Structure formats: structure tokens, C-alpha cells
Amino acid sequence: MKFNAGVQLYNYMETFYCCTVTSAQEFESVVSEHMLVYVISGELDVLLHDRRRHLQRGQAYFIRKDFKAHKIEYPSKDGTPFKGLFLQLKTPMLKKVMREYQLGNDTGKRYSSRSPYIMLPDHPLLKGMFRSLESYFDTGQYPSEQLMTAKITEVILTLVEAVPMLKSVLFDFAEPWKIDLGEYMEENYTNDLDLEGFAHYTGRSLTAFKKDFMSVFHSSPGKWLVKRRLKEARHLIQDNGEKPMDVYIQVGFKNLSHFSTAFKREYGVAPTRMLSQARC
Which of 55, 88, 219, 268 shows its CA 20 to 30 Å from the CA of 206? Predict the structure, then answer.
């Protein structure tokens, strides 16, 4: 169990998590395995580009692996803290269940969208599944490893039964899996990843990543990332009136001085000066 200001997190086997927050908290990270998210109480906003999906008590979504999860968790209007369940569905376990239960992804109905988020329906099987998962943390006693393995198996089978089209996502183990590079970079350019990291999460070797990147963007990854981050920074400063010291990390820079130098080189004016001009 870990505590931060306003956050209480239970973590079991780096697979099963229960998070409670008493004040608004924003989280952003790359998800390396498929994950289920269920809102027990409070509210949750899931962000993707300029779209925002709002979830309340009893709602759930599925997030694909190798995408950036950007969410805001906060108490409901009556002050009830946010409480959510997060369950990773790891590749070895999915392969084991597929093999033992002779499951395949040839359902005939497939998810055509490459959106990382898939909203789950209000299905009685899913409701019962999430209630049973919640009970583990209510008792204050972690399940055994054997019981947890059985529970995750039950979760996978329940998902397949309630949402058959998820089979095409859960049991897609093709490697390397080349996702759309342009779409991925536009969604994830602010991530704190080196080029090897971006290559990995787009299903490419570093050499293939650089080659494909040049074909899509007609620029090297390093130059494109700097320009794209600066463009977003200018928007946040000039149009939204945000302070440079609040913006540079948000858009993916690690150092304020480096950000300010690159910004002035690109736009001919320091970010603080642009903010002053925007306020006039």
C-alpha cells in the first residue's frame, strides 16, 4: 500500500490495483499491458486529444496496451472520494487462457477503431465481475496467488462472453505489431520516452522507426518532436495564457532553460515575452 497527498493505492502482484483519491488527481502514463478500469465511486475523465469522456459510479472501460493513459480522477459533487479498480491483463496470462479454453480472435466482429479506449457496456455479467473484484479490497485481505490466477481467468472469460468483439483485441499477439505511426505520435509526443521507447511502442526496431518516421513526417524524429512540442507550448501560452514554467513539462521538455532557448530559436521571442504580449 502506498500513500501520496490525497492518494491511497493498494497494489497486488503489480497486476491488481485499487486507488482512492480525496482531491482531483491527474495521471498520465504509457500502459504496457491491456487494462480494465472500473469506477466504484467518484468521477473519472478520460482524455484523448481534444475529446473527453466522463465516467461515473458503475462505469468501466478497457484500454489497449502500448498507449498513453491520460485521466483525471476526482471526488463526486457530494464529496464522495474517487475509488477505482485497475486490473492488468498480461500477455502470458491471455495466451494461457486462449490455449486452455481454445479461444481465438476469429469472431467475425472486430473493433475497427484504433482508439486506445473501449467503453464497456452495462452488462450484468460485467457488473457481477467487478463487484467480486471489489470485495477483495473491502475485506482488507489480499487473495492468494492461486486464487488471483483463477480470478483473472474468470475476468478474461467474462469479457469474451459479454463483449465478443474484444477477442480480436485480447488475443492479437502478432509481433511486431506496427500501429499507425502518425496517429500514435500525435497522441503521445509529450511522453517522456527516448527514440528506442517510441520505436518499441509502435512495434518497430529503431532503424525501422526512423525510416517509417521520415516517410510519414518528412523529418527526423528528434527534430519533429521538438517542433511539435514547441507548437503545443505556443498554443498553451498564446491562446490559453498558461505560464511557461507550467507548460514546459506538460509538453515533454525536461528543462525550463532548454525549453526557453528552443522556443526563442523557433519563434524569435522568449516564452515569457509571448505570454506578456498575449495578455496585452
Answer: 88
Amino acid at 71: K
Go through 183-220 and write b for each residue having 16 or more CB atoms within 10 A of its CB, e for each that does not.
ebbebbbbbebeeeebbbbbbbeeeebbebbeeebeee
Range of the domain at 158: 2-170
Give residue 1's pLDDT.
Answer: 45
| Residue 111 scores a pLDDT above 50 | yes
The string of pLDDT tens digits covering residues 31-44 is 888 999 999 999 99
Does residue 53 contact residue 45 with C-beta atoms inside 8 Å? Answer: yes
132 and 39 housed in the same domain: yes
Contact between 132 and 87 under an 8 Å Cβ cutoff? The reply is no
Q: Are residues 36 and 93 located together in one domain of the fold?
A: yes
Of 170, 202, 235, the domain-final residue: 170
Residue 205 to residue 121: CA distance in whole angstroms = 37
Number of domains, the chain: 2
Alpha-carbon distance 269 to 242, whole Å?
Answer: 16
What span, in angstroms and rounded, lies between the C-alpha atoms of 165 and 162?
A: 9
- On whether residue 175 sits in a domain, the answer given is no
In a domain, 176, yes or no: no
- Same domain as 129, residue 220: no
Write the pLDDT tens digit of every residue in 122-158.
Answer: 999 999 999 988 887 777 677 788 988 999 999 999 9
On whether residue 230 sits in a domain, the answer given is yes
**DSSP secondary structure letter of residue 143:** P
**CATH for 60:** 2.60.120.810
